[in-house]
User: Fold this.
Amino acid sequence: MRDATPAQTKTHLKDYATVPVTVTHVDLAFRLDPQATRVRATLTCRRQGPGPMVLDGEGLRTLSVELDGMRLPHDDLIDGDRMTIADAPDGFVLRTEVEIAPDRNTALSGLYMSNGMYCTQCEAEGFRRITWMLDRPDVMATYDVAIDADLPVLLSNGDEGARGRWHDPCPKPTYLFALVAGNLVAASDRFTTMEGRDVALNLWVRPGDDGRTAYALDALKRSMAWDERVYGRAYDLSVFNVVAVDDFNMGAMENKGLNVFNSRYVLASPDTATDADYANIERIVAHEYFHNWTGNRITCRDWFQLCLKEGLTVFRDQSFMADMRSEAVQRIGDVLALRARQFREDAGPLAHPVRPESFIEINNFYTATIYEKGAELIRMLRSIVGPDGYDLGVQLYFERHDGTAATIEDWLHCFEEACATDLSQFKLWYSQAGTPTVTIRQDWADGDYTLTLRQHVPDTPGQTGKSPMPIPLAFGLLGADGTEIAATRLHVLDVPEAVLRFQTPERPVLSMLRGFSAPVHLDIDLTEGDRLTLLAHDTDPFVRWEAGRMLAKDRLMRMVRDRTAPGAAWLDAVHALATDETTDPAFRSLALGLPSEDDLAGSLHDAGVVPDPAIIYAAREDAHAALARRLADDLPRLRAGVATPGPYVPEAADAGKRALAATLLRLQTRLDDGNAARGAYAAADNMTDRMAAFACLLEAGDDDVAAAFEEDWKHDRLVMDKWFAARVSHAPPARAVDVADLLTRHPDFDPSNPNRFRAVIGGLVGGNPAGFHDASGRGYDFVADWLIQMDRSNPQTAARMSAAFETWRRYDADRQALMRAALGRMRDRATSRDTAEMVGRMLE
Ligand code: TRP
Ligand code: ZN
Assistant:
């Protein structure tokens, strides 16, 4: 079996070289057919240095190759996935014709079919599955596309001439190419840019989905206006098309002028989408739109520079969301996601720098580190050079690099020049993996307050002995009564150890890492009293929330270790916050949320305790029950206080109230066996409230509700994804694997649809950790079996999900052996280099 392991050839950043022959214009003619699509490509080529032209092609049936009209013996030129044109002239035209079968493309990369619709996904290296080409981002060409098919809608990038004839005047790399054809209907609108360009906006969906497009279209217009107002960037074509596709490996894709979306991140109606869905739609619509400048007009020189477009664009979508909704709630949510995904990644065998130095399969590097940590680097850069410096640097970047394929160095140079600063030490953030720990020790005596700050960057796979990095620490000081005695200031800690001194008449309470100013672990000597003061009084909402979170975490870790009860001081503090009806409901809901099971497992491991997922689950249950009892008398009144009568509005204020109502209902369910939840389920007139009540009822063991929900929603695939995921996530851990297994036998379980696959398999891994980590190892075997099967049809999705096992070193010897055995089985049976690379790194 091991002989069949796919080739594990590494690509290295240090080996980057420009192509000797480039392509300046691409002319594509498609004759679409499910089993035998013909693609004729006419490439205008130009020599820019010595050497052969080497084109990429994967799974193509090559019919002909012509150079300047002369037929070449293509079998002699092609070796596997490469075609070499040895003695190409200075300028020439290369024409190829190939046949491909979109119908059999289950990897969802290249040209594939979804519900009878043709669509493409070319990032990162899918274009080579469509035709022979230099499939790399530093080759930028203009495109003409002709689509012939007996279908009502034929779309590609750019502007449409005759029907199915598209011209894209903006030079772009292959990964931004897109084609969509099928029976689609559009919801349309218009937008006039600040430059006076009248842009047609079309959101293309399957007939029947046209009632669910309004929110995404509105989000698109708000994104366009925001990018003009905040970054001075306007849209550049006369049409902007967006298509919703049911079968999609990721969230969405920023193809030039033709964004393609996973339908779950576009389609929404109050009846079918939750507040979380609406927020995701708003964020992802903005993200893909913002790529038009940060990604498309300025693209990446090579895939090592991926964070150049992704980190920056995530930072832009986070800033947009903060403006559209609540800055505090957005920041806390961003930090929760960063810690859950990126800190976890950084602490395990898959840790890698924001700019990796090598990869086997680039698709494995669309990670939380590239995206979320990449965004944190932009945020730190902005706080170090200041908002005005940031604007100067960004504008210089747009001016200087528009229309080119750029690097991280290009980006940083713009800031060094515009802000007259040296960013060579800051650049370490791009090359050193691992989450730094900042240790803070305080000393106060006779009016002298001393802060000792230390930083440590941990070893990660392949990297040891790291240098100190510039860490921006935003902090303030409170008096014992909670009044602010020193407003926020910024200290950039760029040495291993620094000492700061202040004069304060009393021992202050330190409010450190305001706004989560750097992606670090904080080891800080705050007392429980300090934390209670910060939770009650700090002016920085992030630190306030964090103080409550640390109190909860301390409590829970003690409960896990010593099986103690939750403790009155913590319960009183949470009670005080929950019942303070002057505080934003969204914030109160966040403050009531306990650290996740996975978060606790990681923290216990860091503290030298081997985590037991079953005990962690039980401790959280106890803590929830104690909270419910402490709040018992208040729950009905508090829930009534956040009722949202009247028609559902998907806006932040109401969403915050619904979030708090859901949190309170969950506590109530522990006291009344689901009585209130049954009422809430029956009364729900929107999917947010319905899902909240549904989750409570599943946890209360009410099995009838699952059948009732299914009966009501079996016709709706996006709602049924929620049903599948909720049933697994909210099953009692001892039954979770059985429930997941049963659901994979459900007639509507279709593993070829990534959303459905992720709902069930991902629902177990991410939604029910105590079930996944069942001591018997059944969860590991179940997930490994499905990933092995998935790897044969859809390697990208299988490989991404294999990170379920990245935490194996945290656990006890028995679980480690079981997880390693599952990984070993996946390694032996991997058919893709995607999964082979992931599993190999986890076992190293
Ligand atoms: N560039 C896309 C984004 O950030 C991500 C993406 C969509 C992607 N589809 C993909 C990445 C397929 C790799 C493979 O929005
Ligand atoms: Zn992106």
In short: The domain at 21-298 is CATH 2.60.40.1730 (Immunoglobulin-like). The chain has 27 helices and 31 strands. The longest helix spans residues 368-401. The mean pLDDT is 98.
